[in-house]
Amino acid sequence: MKPPVFTEESVSEMAVPRFKEHKATQVAALLAKYSSGKIDMYKLIKLIYLIDRESLKRRGHPVTFDRPYNLPLGPTPSHTYHLIWNPWDGEYWPQSFSLPKKNIIRLLNNDTDDGELSPFEIDLISEIYEEFGNKSFSELKKYVHSLPEFDDPGHSSAPMEWNRLLKAVGWTGDDLVAIRKEFNAIATFENMMDNTIE
Predict the structure, then answer these.
(1) Cβ proximity of 27 and 93 under 8 Å
(2) Residue 179 half-sphere exposure toward CB, CA atoms < 13 A
(3) At residue 8, does pLDDT exceed 70?
(4) Cβ atoms of 32 and 114 closer than 8 Å
(5) Cα 60 to Cα 185: distance, rounded to the nearest angstrom
(6) Residue 74's beta-bridge partner residues?
(7) Is residue 116 domain-resident?
(8) Which residues, at least 6 apart from 102, have a Cβ–Cβ distance to it below 8 Å?
(9) Which of 140, 167, 169, 170 could hold 46 in an S-S bridge, CB 3.0 to 4.6 Å?
(10) pLDDT digits (tens, 9 = 90+) for 81-115
(11) Which residues contact 44 (CB under 8 A, 6 or more apart)?
């Protein structure tokens, strides 16, 4: 029996690796450190989205694997957005950040390490902050609204399709299929490890 032949159209239902909260916390902590220990929460989620997007563009996978959603305020990493308002739902986030006050969150501990992040990822975070860190949230919102993957949900919200995002950053054909197969393999392994532990 021949193995199935995957095409761009047939990989949309493949699984995706789970959200990496530890890495997301360290990404956010670095961005907050660059902002003197505090940062506007809406600006933060836009910067994290742009970091994940650029990582996806350059190497075929994001840093945090946060699930992007289309919201009125633009593409948004949904798990991080949830943790900002509900830090008690996280394992690592509540150790590093305060609840937002007037949309500002603060680092609780300046010693938050970056050990989960690769040198490439640390350099990328610095690069994105250098390019976008001085922009206001309004400027960032206007920019992310112009990105090809954004689909304005009106007053609602909707998950962004991974295939749409991958295509928007330049992945097509066999490369797109290979990336989605890698996503699926990682997700399958994660589920297998969970079942083994149980």
Answers:
(1) no
(2) 23
(3) no
(4) no
(5) 14
(6) 71
(7) yes
(8) none
(9) 140
(10) 999 999 999 999 999 999 999 999 999 987 778 99
(11) 28, 31, 32, 80, 84, 105
CA–CA distance, 69 with 122 (Å, rounded to integer): 24
Using the 8-state DSSP alphabet, how is residue 107 labeled? Answer: B
CB 117 within 8 Å of CB 65: no
Q: In terms of residue numbers, what domain contains 70?
A: 16-197
Phi, psi at residue 74, to the nearest 5°? 105, 180
Report yes or no on 6 lying in a domain. Answer: no
Query: How many residues make up the chain in this entry?
Result: 198
For β-strands 68-71 and 38-40, DSSP reports them as unpaired
Residue 14: pLDDT band (50, 70, 90) is: confident
Q: Mutual orientation of helices 41-59 and 137-145 as an angle, nearest 10°?
A: 40
Own/partner long-range contacts of 144-150 (Cβ < 8 Å, ≥24 apart)? 144/46, 144/49, 144/50, 144/74, 144/75, 145/74, 147/53, 147/75, 149/68, 149/75, 150/70, 150/74, 150/75
- Give the integer Cα–Cα distance in Å for 140 and 110: 26
Which of helix, strand or coil describes residue 69? Answer: strand
The single-letter code of the amino acid at 181 is K
- 74 CA to centre of own chain: 13
Q: Is residue 158 part of a domain?
A: yes
Domain count for the chain, please give it. Answer: 1
Q: What residue spans of 116-161 are helical by DSSP H?
A: 119-132, 137-145
